[in-house]
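User: Please run a holo structure prediction.
Assistant: Happy to. Please share the sequence and the ligand.
User: Here you go; the ligand is 5-O-phosphono-beta-D-ribofuranosylamine.
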Amino acid sequence: MKRLAVFASGRGSNFQAILDHVRLRVLENVTVSLLISNDATAPVLTLAKKNSISSIHIPGIQNRKFNNKQEREEARNQFDAQSTTTLKGHGIDMVALAGFMQVLGKPVLQDYKYRIMNIHPALDLTRFGGRGMYGDRVHDAVLQAGETKSGCTVHYVDESIDGGPIILQTFVPIEPHDTPHTLAHRVLIQEHRIYSKVIQLHTDERIQIHDGKVTIDWSNDWEAKWRERESAFIRHQEMLIEQPATPPQ
Ligand code: GRF
């Protein structure tokens, strides 16, 4: 059984989708052991409680004011040191960043090299990733650029921002009247599927990296078997889309 920790700073829909994949037995040999948030007010912390997942708030640089750059960097370093200790304390094998709004420093990255993944809601991470590219800004930039397709990307995390080796992507066509909001919605549906698929590939040791490039071993019908199991999650997802969480007033 591989022990997964999720780092998140916000609403946590990707975190919830991973938990649903485990609950529905789509994800195999994975247990979500820990949620770390750098924001005490993040709704994802409530989701963790509801799902009985151990969670911890480690103060980072999110939603905090600092007197100067040095104080800010000290807070970042403290976050990195404390999260490394926490990950080791919980015997964590791999980490999924899911809407985590802070760049991780060397201590965590070195200890968990090619064991930390991130999801980004775009395809071209050089143009639509990096500093300042988050939330609707990403989709806005994609639409402004006149792209015909967008999507989502799962990649290993290295010291760059959104720049590590790409593992898998899903394409989402752009429709004529798309707004950042409608595009974000369709991309998010795909995010919720692809992240667990990559976590399974990683758990099954199907991902290899040579010279910074990923190759995936799809042998023995891996994908067909995944698709068969994943249909349970897709049915669940379709039900959620048909019955939105907040009923109309
Ligand atoms: C997702 O779009 C993800 O790609 C990005 O931040 C968003 C997080 O959403 N990194 P959620 O908190 O998982 O709902």
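The longest helix spans residues 180-203.
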